[in-house]
Amino acid sequence: MVETQGSARVPVTVAAVDNDRMALLALKGIMPQLLPESRWLWGVETADEAVHRTLDPDTRPQVLLVDMSLGDATGVSVCRMIRQRTNRVALLAITAFPTDAYARRAAKAGAQGIVSKADIPQLAKALRTVATGGTFAPPQFAGMFRAADAAVVVTGTAAASTVPEAAITPGTETDVDANTGNRPKLGAKESETLHLLSQGLSYDEIASRWGVAASTVRTHAHRAVDKLGAHSLAHAIAIWLSR
Questions:
Q1: Contact 78/102 with Cβ under 8 angstroms?
Q2: Which residues of 87-102 are buried (b: 16+ CB within 10 A; e: fewer)?
Q3: How do residues 29-56 score in pLDDT, each as one tens digit?
Q4: Taking the domains of the chain in order of start, what are their residue ranges?
Q5: CATH code for 4-168?
Q6: Residue 169 CB neighbour total at 10 angstroms
Q7: What is the pLDDT of residues 55-92, one digit of tens each?
Q8: Cross-referenced Pfam families, in alphabetical order (predicted)?
Q9: Alpha helices of the chain — where are they, by DSSP H?
Q10: Which of 57, 59, 92, 196 is least surrounded by Cβ atoms within 10 Å, i.e. has the fewest?
């Protein structure tokens, strides 16, 4: 909820992470229309910087918009790292891809909602909802986001997350083969690489798990991108998730 001091409304601080600089500039520019009572705090392009700034009390926003596609990182991992450390930030996942590609993982990672970046009216509604302690998601995922809701209220403390830590660690979902329909067939390691990347693991973390060099994992990922005809790793992951 939005606090008031006397008759004055205290602005809701908003920040965003998106590896598309133009998207960040656009979000900053339209924020007064999306959430009139907001104050733009910062916008960054990398996962590491977003996590660092969010966990720092001096730069912590009350609402963080998290793009689900961040180059070699994922917005899912950003949400998970932040939620493991604090419940004092409302996390809203945003994506240029279909929201159902990321909704389940965003919910399990502790986000309060997910919305398309292209749907401005829905983006405004989602911001208002999570800023007042609610959840926002497509109807088919609404129950999941309620279950994953960390009871965030942007004006202060929050209850502990209702999602047990085990529920948001990599590998908790069944790895379903993505090689269906007319899609080119991915090798086992290529499929597993996309699976683990979609869960928020980095190349180095996957390499450590497999006992190989990070360059080997990167090669599997690049081959998957080529076979799926994707224009980026994030696009390949989105295609794989929408199987």
A1: no
A2: bbbbbbbbbbbebebb
A3: 999 999 998 999 999 998 889 999 999 9
A4: 4-168, 188-241
A5: 3.40.50.2300
A6: 12
A7: 999 999 999 999 998 876 788 889 988 988 888 899 99
A8: GerE, Response_reg
A9: 21-34, 47-55, 75-85, 103-108, 120-131, 142-148, 188-198, 203-210, 214-228, 233-241
A10: 57
